[in-house]
Design brief:
17 helices; mainly alpha; single chain; Glycosyltransferase
């Protein structure tokens, strides 16, 4: 759980001094000024130092260190995930695909790809191989994507693991998905009022071993009010419940990347979109766990709101709907962006972890990913990049790392990660990385219109009232209506 506290006086003074020294003053204008040459030079130097740190930290095997001692792999299992994210960041920062550090990671991942079962690792390996862009990985990308499709649960999200599929099952699943996507194309809602819709076709034949997968169910039967996790080990993963928006976010990013490899993923996307349409809370956030109509208690609200905004972006770009439903979707996006706007620029709240007094680098990456996705130079009136860059440049060490403050202690559930991962998140932020550029290009939303909506909700009571109204209308709709 993400825990928060105020900065200690010394920490706050250090941060503010760093902001003044670097010239990164917070902006409240409607048109943020670009970085000066001097400011950009400081950012470029920080990126170069971070890249050098990651290259030095990599082990001969291609892996990156976990930096957690005295803790078994049972409690810290995502070793592959911690390796692939730094390598992905190196690529995003302009390191060549044939660089020895990148290639060592690629060899390691190819060796283990077929054995993976965690959603995080399947997703991250797929994203890395897609970004690497080597023809030899096409079959692996397809296999990883199909396993993610098979792991989608009945509320449109993912839990911690996905099933293994035989080669025959993968071929059957791909064939059935192609037929299903073709059928969906025939019955999609009209993109404009008055347009004619196609005729429904017969449902595709699905082998018995795959027939109970979420993607082949009628969406009208799937979206229950709450999930109930099952302790029965004999139940398939898609019945088990207990999904979360963290796993779901990484699966979504991976499947968007897989879409570039001619995979029929609209049936999967429509369940993702429906999940986030019907689970936003009255305050504009999405929580860690799924709950129809929104959660009562929020866990990691800002970071999981980023997951909801990714899902709704796919809805706007890929899942046509009637005009009033599209308008509602866009309002939900504005509510979510307003939540992130409230975090930006405030060093006394979500930015710092209670007890550990270190920046939440994952939260910073969340804000950067969302802003890049929606082409927002500002979120509302908040100059997110100047603020985040000031925080990051203040906290980077001389050796190029953004450190893990408390080594040897498993505080990952509080948002504190290894130095390699902290450095990864910092580099992705400073580089303004956008892992979904092709999704951004398809969005029909204008940044200036989004910001007008955010600023209209800048008053806390106005946001609460507007989003409460939205939540009520969401609850009034049947939980069984398809996206």
């Amino acid at each position: 759980m993400l825990q928060i506290r105020c900065f200690g006086l010394r920490k706050l003074v250090d941060l503010l001094a760093g902001v003044m020294l670097l010239g990164f003053a917070a902006s409240v204008s409607a048109d943020p000024k670009p970085l000066t040459k001097e400011e950009q030079a400081k950012v470029d130097k920080a990126i170069e130092r971070g890249i050098r740190f990651l290259k030095r930290a990599q082990r001969p095997s291609g892996a990156f260190p976990r930096e957690v001692t005295g803790i078994s792999s049972k409690h810290f299992p995502f070793v592959v995930g911690q390796t692939v994210l730094p390598a992905l960041a190196l690529l995003e920062c302009g390191v060549a695909p044939d660089d020895p550090c990148v290639q060592k990671t690629a060899l390691l991942l190819r060796k283990h790809a077929s054995k993976l079962e965690s959603t995080y690792e399947l997703s991250l390996v797929l994203m890395f191989l897609d970004r690497l862009g080597e023809r030899q990985d096409e079959e692996t990308i397809r296999s990883l994507a199909l396993r993610l499709v098979a792991g989608q649960c009945y509320t449109g999200g993912w839990s911690y693991r996905c099933p293994h599929l035989t080669t025959e099952q993968e071929a059957d699943l791909l064939k059935a998905l192609r037929a299903l996507q073709k059928n969906l194309g025939a019955v999609r809602p009209a993109p404009r009022e008055g347009a004619k819709q196609g005729e429904a076709k017969a449902a595709p034949e699905v082998p018995a071993s795959l027939a109970k997968l979420a993607v082949f169910q009628n969406p009208s039967n799937l979206f229950v009010r709450e999930e109930v996790a099952s302790s029965r080990v004999d139940r398939p993963v898609f019945f088990a419940g207990g999904t979360d928006n963290s796993n779901t976010q990484f699966a979504t990013l991976a499947l968007w990347a897989a879409r570039r490899h001619d995979l029929p993923l609209i049936p999967t996307f429509r369940l993702i979109v429906r999940r986030f349409e019907c689970s936003q809370s009255a305050d504009g956030t999405w929580s860690y766990a799924y709950r129809f109509g929104g959660a009562i208690r929020q866990t990691l609200p800002a970071t999981n709101t980023g997951a909801g905004l990714l899902g709704l972006a796919i809805g706007c770009a890929e899942i046509p709907t009637e005009k009033n439903e599209q308008t509602r979707r866009e309002k939900q996006i504005v509510y979510g962006l307003a939540v992130l706007s409230g975090v930006i620029g405030d060093p006394t709240e979500l930015l710092v972890l209670r007890k550990y007094e270190e920046p939440n680098y994952y939260l910073l990456w969340t804000i950067e990913r969302v802003a890049a996705l929606y082409k927002l130079q500002e979120v509302g009136r908040q100059d997110w990049y100047r603020w985040g860059a000031a925080v990051l440049l203040t906290n980077q060490r001389a050796n190029g790392e953004w450190p893990r403050v408390h080594t040897g202690v498993d505080v990952t559930h509080s948002g504190s990660f290894s130095s390699s991962l902290n450095t990864t998140f910092a580099l992705l932020f400073l580089k303004r990385s956008n892992l979904t550029k092709d999704l951004t290009a398809k969005l029909p939303l204008k940044p200036e219109e989004l910001n007008k909506g955010i600023m209209a909700l800048s008053n806390g009571s106005a946001l609460k009232n507007a989003s409460s109204s939205n939540s009520s209308s969401t609850k009034q709709r049947s939980a069984t209506s398809p996206p």
